Amino acid sequence: MLPLELEPLTDTEIAHEGRLRQLIVEAIQSAGGWLPFDAFMQLALYAPCLGYYAAGAHKLGAGGDFVTAPELSPVFGRCVAEQCAEVLRQLGGGDIVEVGAGTGALAEAVLSELQASGQLPTRYRILEISPDLRDRQRQRLSALPPSLMALVEWIDAPPPDAYRGVLIANEVIDALPVARLRGSSQGLLALGVELHDGNLREASRPASKAEVARVADMDVELADQQEIEWCPQLSDWIISITTSLTAGVALFIDYGDSRRHLYSVDRPRGTLVSFHRHRIHNDPYVNLGLQDLTAWVDFTAVAEAGLAAGLEVAGYTTQACFLLACGFDRHLARWRDQLPAESAPLAARSALRLVLPNDMGERFKCMALARNYPDTLAGFSIRDFTETL
Ligand SMILES: C[S@@+](CC[C@H](N)C(=O)[O-])C[C@H]1O[C@@H](n2cnc3c(N)ncnc32)[C@H](O)[C@@H]1O
């Protein structure tokens, strides 16, 4: 990636950045001078009151750092609702749990569409880690009709009580901290961060036995200097958020690929990137707490985590195939008809980005993990790539 000039920070942002930087410096010192990358990323994104998701950065949308599918067009949520409606119908009703709901755009579109199709869930629960995004969700969803808003509940931890229904997580796995590994002629290296003249600097250490074993388990052979990321907490996280789903489907949508494609030598530097004010760059050690850090999802690992959680892979496909199978054309036509004639063409162009192959259509994938749900899922009826995992 070419070096890119980043936008200057305001004085308030500089002060915020400095506080988080100090916290990370202290963490490096107390770890003996080197912090593994996933521990750094955990602090950069989630340190209480300072991390990117824990503090008040605008994050999603035009005034923020990046745009997600639900922000781009409500057609995305309408298609997701169609898949939810099918599952709720087969189960004879149930709940929806959305993990990491961003600004509430997906919840708004899903609930409105499910009301229109007469298939509302009993409850729509949101598990959100970010206090300020929770506030934005509350504000946005309070504009829904009171009968819909009455279904929405915020929860602080995965649902403790058994439920049937659908769990949705759009672009959440890519926000979980990743560890970074590099192949080398001296053996596998773990990447992390150290202090150099008071600044943060990338540094490597020989990988631990557990990391070497993990790479062997993944059946990955790294070329010299090839870098990859993997998410150490993925399996526990998937187990924890799906434990109380007794019957139904968990839908994970994110940019990612099967392991053998993700870790191919065609991506010698891995997939970790930083987003700041809609600019994408590859320096995670600047703009601390003010920029998003994210890496592509290893969907083979998601499937393995699902199996460890006692779930079955019920489908894996591209976002384009999923949305098209969930009535994308029909939802887009209806959305256009609801808009004033002058804004319809622009809105349609935004919606098309969801399915275009060189945009979100193929980079993003959708995986369904099911428990006690024997029926097929409409969203995977065009192509199911499960065998490629
Ligand atoms: C990239 S944003 C995607 C937001 C939204 N799903 C969308 O597509 O617009 C990631 C979201 O996941 C939330 N998040 C990250 N880690 C989480 C976790 N462990 N539990 C719950 N929410 C989490 C963030 O606060 C944020 O709302």
Tell me about this structure.
This protein has 389 residues and is an alpha/beta fold. The protein has a domain at 63-177 and 233-388: Rossmann fold (3-Layer(aba) Sandwich). It is built from 15 helices and 16 strands. Strands 2, 3, 4, 5, 10, 14, 15 and 16 form an eight-stranded mixed beta sheet that branches. Strands 1, 6, 7, 8 and 9 form a five-stranded antiparallel beta sheet that branches. Strand 7 and strand 8 form a beta hairpin. Helix 4 (74-91) packs across helix 5 and helix 4 packs across helix 13. The mean pLDDT is 95. The structure holds S-adenosylmethionine. S-adenosylmethionine (SAM) is lined by residues 53, 60, 68, 70-71, 99-102, 105-106, 127-130, 133, 170-172, 175.
